[in-house]
Amino acid sequence: MSMPEPKTAWRLLKSAGVKYVRFVIVDIFGRPRVDILPIDEAKDAFIDGVLFDGSSIPAYGGVNRSDFVAMPDLDSVYIETWNGGKTALIFTSVMDGSRPSLRDPRNVLKSALETVKARGYKPLLGVELEFFLVKGDPPMYADGGVYFDGHLLHTWPVLEEIMEHFHLSGIGSTKTHHEVAPGQYEVNIPAGDPLEVADKVLAFKILAKSVAQRHGYTATFMPKPFWGINGSGAHVHLSLWRDGENLFASVKEPREELKYAVAGILQNAIANSVFVAPTVNSYKRLVPHHEAPTRIVWGLGNRSAMVRVPYYGGRINRLEYRHPDPSMNPYVAFASIVFSAYMGVEKRLEPPPPVDTVAYELEGVRETPRHLGDAVKYAQESALLPEEFVKPYLALKEEEWLSYLKSEGDWEKTWNKITRWEYNAYLVNV
């Protein structure tokens, strides 16, 4: 289906009762920045784009070169039905003069996908996105539930409303359940083109936070808001297609193409860590025995491994990368994941043997970085993504790490507790 003409898209939204348009510019951290226009004033922006000051959004531009244009992507429009349907979210891609800006995370993902698709591959990607419902400051989880808990008297109205608007807003169909930790839930972002899925991740975060706030809760995508219980992951499920065939589909034994992709992801896992686990708090999730990976290994149906190949009844059709968490910039994370898998297939990389033991007990294998500072260092040595994006991104992540150390002291003294600095930085901001 082709993208609608700008005037047609504007007319359809106006006739549907939309009063305001929120044009979304994604910042370097994956957070939505919005320019809000009444529907009549938005008509020109549909055609000519949104003009903005790039020097006021980290890493886009300096004060001496700050005039940017964000062009609406009319394939990525979501109606805020949770707010009465009077507002539309429209994602944009930023132009730097006549070319797409690679400071824009959406353009980074677009560039990676163009490379992969030019070789005849079609990646499909979905995400299991976990989050907490919390109350208060310091926060406490909203319930004492357990995995698949069915007695959610207080929080079910929140989940019910989120589920309803997930569908009505155009994000798609999903399922949800209570996760292992108290106050923790999971939704599935349906599989699709990675750019579309990344947009849906941001749209869902906006939806969930708005609905939760209306009920007196905070929906937080902070990876590890509470020590001693499971943190939240963003498990990425990936398949690679060519000429209408799923290259990962098999029965009992993994196909070579799947193993090559696994090898590419594992080989680049350390360098990609800062993109898929991008916060100080991310590395407090990546500790043993809480269903988060610490060893860079893979296995069939093994949830302690970094890459799990789902193996229900011996059928295989995708891989699951368990390293990412919901604080990720989904565009940058997906670009690094897809490109790593693609490189593995193209180079026919061989992975190590799969493991069927609990991976946390393995010795002599590579491990995830200890903390954000190490993750920044490793990415500087071998990042796969465009330098135009990576250089300012890593500089900002280095500042984030140093700010934490200045506030809280040595990592060795704080790695096993959640600090006030982290709540201030991440509880509502990721």
Automatic annotation (TrEMBL):
<dbReference type="GO" id="GO:0005524">
    <property type="term" value="F:ATP binding"/>
</dbReference>
<dbReference type="InterPro" id="IPR027303">
    <property type="entry name" value="Gln_synth_gly_rich_site"/>
</dbReference>
<dbReference type="InterPro" id="IPR036651">
    <property type="entry name" value="Gln_synt_N_sf"/>
</dbReference>
<dbReference type="InterPro" id="IPR008147">
    <property type="entry name" value="Gln_synt_N"/>
</dbReference>
<feature type="domain" description="GS catalytic">
    <location>
        <begin position="105"/>
        <end position="430"/>
    </location>
</feature>
<dbReference type="Pfam" id="PF00120">
    <property type="entry name" value="Gln-synt_C"/>
</dbReference>
<comment type="similarity">
    <text>Belongs to the glutamine synthetase family.</text>
</comment>
<protein>
    <submittedName>
        <fullName>L-glutamine synthetase</fullName>
        <ecNumber>6.3.1.2</ecNumber>
    </submittedName>
</protein>
<keyword id="KW-0547">Nucleotide-binding</keyword>
<feature type="domain" description="GS beta-grasp">
    <location>
        <begin position="16"/>
        <end position="99"/>
    </location>
</feature>
<dbReference type="InterPro" id="IPR014746">
    <property type="entry name" value="Gln_synth/guanido_kin_cat_dom"/>
</dbReference>
<keyword id="KW-0460">Magnesium</keyword>
<dbReference type="GO" id="GO:0004356">
    <property type="term" value="F:glutamine synthetase activity"/>
</dbReference>
<dbReference type="InterPro" id="IPR008146">
    <property type="entry name" value="Gln_synth_cat_dom"/>
</dbReference>
<keyword id="KW-0436">Ligase</keyword>
<keyword id="KW-0067">ATP-binding</keyword>
<dbReference type="GO" id="GO:0006542">
    <property type="term" value="P:glutamine biosynthetic process"/>
</dbReference>
<dbReference type="Pfam" id="PF03951">
    <property type="entry name" value="Gln-synt_N"/>
</dbReference>
